[in-house]
Amino acid sequence: MESTVNGGAGDKATSTTSNGTAAVDKGVDFANYFCTYAFLYHQKEMLSDRVRMDAYLNSVFKNKHHFIGKTVLDVGTGSGILAIWSAQAGAKKVYAVEATKMAEHARELVKANKLQDVIEVIEGSIEDITLPEKVDVIISEWMGYFLLRESMFDSVICARDRFLKPTGVMYPSHARMWLAPIRSEVTDQKMSEYEECMDDWQGFVTETKSYYGVDMSVLTKPFSEEQKKYYLQNSLWNNLDPNQVVGTATIIKEIDCLTVTVDDIIEVKANVSSTITKVDTRLCGFGGWFDVHFNGRKENPAACAVELTTAPSIYGGTHWGQQVFLLHPPVRVNNGDEILVNFSMSRSEENHRLMNVDLGYEVKLSSGKMLPHVRNKFYIE
Amino acid sequence: MESTVNGGAGDKATSTTSNGTAAVDKGVDFANYFCTYAFLYHQKEMLSDRVRMDAYLNSVFKNKHHFIGKTVLDVGTGSGILAIWSAQAGAKKVYAVEATKMAEHARELVKANKLQDVIEVIEGSIEDITLPEKVDVIISEWMGYFLLRESMFDSVICARDRFLKPTGVMYPSHARMWLAPIRSEVTDQKMSEYEECMDDWQGFVTETKSYYGVDMSVLTKPFSEEQKKYYLQNSLWNNLDPNQVVGTATIIKEIDCLTVTVDDIIEVKANVSSTITKVDTRLCGFGGWFDVHFNGRKENPAACAVELTTAPSIYGGTHWGQQVFLLHPPVRVNNGDEILVNFSMSRSEENHRLMNVDLGYEVKLSSGKMLPHVRNKFYIE
């Protein structure tokens, strides 16, 4: 025995109940998901993301009126940074909730920064804990790859419904998902890797037959499917250069964090169209990213609205990068061609924190001619 | 949020009961452990290990008298290869038990090789299934890194106690764990990586203070402990060159698969001594490996005893490689010096499939002078 992971989380973190919603096994979810956040190394990675840090810092300190004398809840405080900023900005009381052992480090950090009289670190999951009062502000950095991977926003919605005052403010207040056609040489590379892997399998089948007397060829199809998924259907993390975006970016989901429900985000469906903006190029796939906004609320707006975007950037981007869905083979397109996209994303039945994407597209050439409709399945794992 | 794993499984797969034995959460264990074996890619990796394959092939086909007309149980059959060989060698009936979905592929493979009348593939864990009869042979490839990682042998013991006839034979029949002093430049590399990581942390603390107004220095100690564990205390997979072994290898555990109990392997303790065999070299750590033997049993011995060793080899070794426990700093030693080792390995409280190692050593120079005793903790994760 003994083997190493070549990717693809086959982990069973949920069981699907008869009505199709997922019943989460807490122990499995902890093993698969939360454990990562118990490492200071990961906290440091996130705390080193300047775009992320600056956006939250500005959102708090340029909108102190939302914090001065107020009660704040930080959902998934991690090392405690957002709770600390909230306190430094003048909050009267901050509840900092963290499900992992990182809570202990957050407590130390709060004390070292002399804010233990304002910040109360609570180790537990937001679904289980209780608070002695409702809060004026919920602040949280809950965004996963392509916004919704990790499904952590469910916990923020739960926190809002349980603990936010009717007049309360969400930080961030809004979120959007974007999709754009891209070009990328990675599509060729992944296809080569897949083909090489299948060549290697063929050699393996031949050798196993001749050396060991066992005919493995019946497994060629399932092996090929497993490897196709791994090489061609898994979405990829990528920090795209803006130059790689070959057409207009479109919004596929808008979320008002004050009113959205879990039902609203459990599936994302969009029919959008994008126009190619580059001359004679290749459509190699689609890039997906998100932005969030700190606008306060209508009745109590931000003094200074702040945006955190994870769009392709010449400045190097964020630790979220973009999620890239590659096409095999790519399609030659031209300035003015239109790409009609039929996008749908839902949670993996086996692990509610991972996503399945169904991405159909048609190319309408500027000549008016339609290329055939193509559908692809992808996995955000 | 979103972070990537830099190593160290903090996964909680077991809870410890009051008597110190681990109660395994099956769902978590599946998510953490079994899922890996559901990928054909991993099966292929194991099936491509020539040393492993040849040993099992020879053990079966050079000892057909153990198989002809007999009933066989294959524990953790994976793709089904050992069950197929057992049938090809003449077994009357083979029960091939597999806990993961790989059972479906095993069933296809059995059919494609026209052995469905002999081999019955059963999807389930050995602890849960029942068989209609006792068996003459239990065959299994249960060995993890350094033999006992994965703790899969527990299931083989369970199978033996439940299903082996009193006259039955175990394949393999015996196993041994080895330890030897080694030299390796990786010890310097790991220390550099650790130091670099801590330098980086210091820069991070300074920047977080000046840019973001938060003093992180209180986390320097826990961060350093986390990174020390990651860089310096995790044992490493390595295929050592025999030249890197600088002293005599010693056996630290001998197992008779026919009689051993889980209590016998839950902890491995040994006081051994090794003599340095190289002139003026460095003791950089210890390498651990194992061998297993196919000897049949005393009353029914193998016609041709076969050995499978994972010792350092000029022929490139096995997919198990060796587990390396590195010392920081290394110690200069010379031909004739004696290394007295106090070795202890037990299961991680958080995941019974991972191991904690306590390794103490003293160097007795050939002059008679003793260097001070040093103790190290390691993690096999």
What do you see in this structure?
Chains A, B: Its EC number is 2.1.1.319. Chains A, B: Residues 192-364 form the Protein arginine N-methyltransferase domain. Chains A, B: Ring-like homodimer. The structure is a homodimer of 381-residue chains. Chain A has two domains: 4-141, Vaccinia Virus protein VP39 (Rossmann fold, 3-Layer(aba) Sandwich); 176-183 and 236-380, Hnrnp arginine n-methyltransferase1, CATH 2.70.160.11. In chain A, 27% of the residues lie in helices and 34% in strands. The first copy, chain A, is built from nine helices and 17 strands. Chain A has helices spanning 26-32, 40-47, 50-61, 81-88, 102-112, 153-163, 186-212, 220-233, 262-265; strands spanning 14-16, 22-24, 71-75, 93-98, 119-123, 135-140, 164-171, 174-182, 236-238, 250-256, 267-275, 281-297, 300-309, 322-333, 338-347, 355-364, 374-380. In chain A, the strands form four sheets. In chain A, strands 8, 9, 10, 12, 13 and 14 form a six-stranded antiparallel β-sheet that branches. In chain A, helix 4 (81-88) links the parallel strand 3 (71-75) and strand 4. The longest helix of chain A has 27 residues, at 186-212. The model of chain A is unreliable at 4-22 (pLDDT under 50). At the A-B interface, helix 1, helix 2, helix 4, helix 5 and helix 7 of A face helix 1, helix 2, helix 4, helix 5 and helix 7 of B.
